[in-house]
Amino acid sequence: MEFQLVLALGLAAVVGLALGLLGGGGSILMVPLLTYAVGMDPKEAIAASLFVVGLTSLVGALAHARAGNVRWRTGLVFGTAGMAGAFVGGVVGAHVPGALLMTAFALMMVATALAMLRGGSATPGRRSAAAAPPLGRVVLDGVVIGAVTGLVGAGGGFLVVPALVLLGGLAMPAAVGTSLLVIGMKSFAGLAGYLTAVSPDWALVGAV
Q1: How far apart are CA 49 and CA 52, in angstroms?
Q2: CA-closest candidate to residue 148, choices 181, 178, 111
Q3: Are 159 and 148 in contact (CB under 8 A)?
Q4: Kindly report the CA angle at 73 between 69 and 76, in degrees rounded to 5?
Q5: pTM value surpassing 0.85
Q6: I need a surface site. Which of 23, 150, 165, 186 has the fewest CB within 10 A?
């Protein structure tokens, strides 16, 4: 058990580094970490991941905000819409078998990787970095991505950053900073949904 905690602490540091640098990558690392390295039940791992990633994201967002890399209007609208989707996704996920959740998690990772590779040739930031993305599209994307985040504990930054860059027209630094705000908001909403039926081992989560 001691070895597992030491391993978890080391990998958690990697999660925080990925979030701070890329605005994403937290959940796709944290959920497998808690499930396979620490030995948590998949549902508890997803709930705990939402808490850890949400907290880390908000801390990172503050650092980016000082550098002027957070677009507050876009982030708050996207995040608020995402919170609604994430809460519903969390409630549903809390009643889905753990094996099915992990399968959905793996499929989401593969689908997102393929989507980002296909979108990599697109020209990001067609609108000026200062221009606000269309409100309707921001709300729709926020709800859909939030629901995915709440359901499987993933789909935060590695979906939000491409959306903000390719669809929202934000420059990469602004997309990274803004995504951290969005991830924090959605993660805590998804956690609230899971807590309606799941009780993680908070002592273990605190050690991570």
Answers
A1: 5
A2: 111
A3: yes
A4: 95
A5: no
A6: 165
Are the C-beta atoms of 101 and 93 separated by less than 8 Å? yes
- Reduced to 3 states (helix: H, G, I; strand: E, B; else coil), residue 195 is coil
Cβ atoms of 185 and 83 closer than 8 Å: yes
Q: How confident is the model at residue 91 (pLDDT cuts 50, 70, 90)?
A: very high
Q: Give residue 128's pLDDT.
A: 47
Residue 89 to residue 105: CA distance in whole angstroms: 13
Q: What is the CA radius of gyration of the chain?
A: 16
For 131, phi and psi rounded to 5 degrees? -75, 145
Higher pLDDT, 52 or 72: 72
Task: Judge contact between 26 and 56, C-beta under 8 A.
Answer: yes
- Rounded to whole angstroms, the Cα distance separating 43 from 87 reads 15
Decide if 23 contacts 177 (C-beta within 8 A): yes
